[in-house]
Design brief:
- The protein is 35% helix and 26% strand.
- The longest helix has 33 residues.
- The protein is globular and about 30 Å long.
């Protein structure tokens, strides 16, 4: 009887600990891991071909990858990530400036120095 009670107590403690993690820790982890940086300017396109472009990088599937590419590229100050339709590839534009931004629904732009570096 005592062994069953001890096992039951351990099981209850484990469930309580799991519940505590799910309620308090998981939302924090998800917010930090999946949250978008506040520097991202939705529906903003800074890309001007031949004026401010350093490089064009296809196949980057999200804005975070575009930001990391900008961090790794000398002279990159701004970046614009453009989400294409399903049959086309997403594009990342690494830029020297954003002097004339325009509204474009599928674009997201950011100034690199305003973005939070990953830990």
């Amino acid at each position: 009887w005592y062994q069953r009670r001890v096992r039951w107590g351990v099981a209850v403690s484990f469930v309580n600990m799991l519940h505590l993690h799910l309620v308090f820790v998981l939302p924090l982890v998800l917010a930090l891991a999946g949250g978008e940086d506040s520097c991202y300017q939705e529906a903003t396109n800074c890309y001007r071909p031949g004026e401010n472009d350093i490089a064009t990088m296809p196949y980057l599937l999200d804005i975070w990858a575009c930001e990391m590419a900008c961090r790794d590229t000398s002279g990159c100050v701004w970046f614009t990530w453009y989400e294409q339709d399903e049959c086309l590839q997403d594009m990342c534009y690494l830029l020297t400036e954003c002097a004339h931004p325009v509204w474009e629904e599928k674009s997201v732009s950011a100034r690199l120095e305003e973005c939070s570096p990953d830990q």
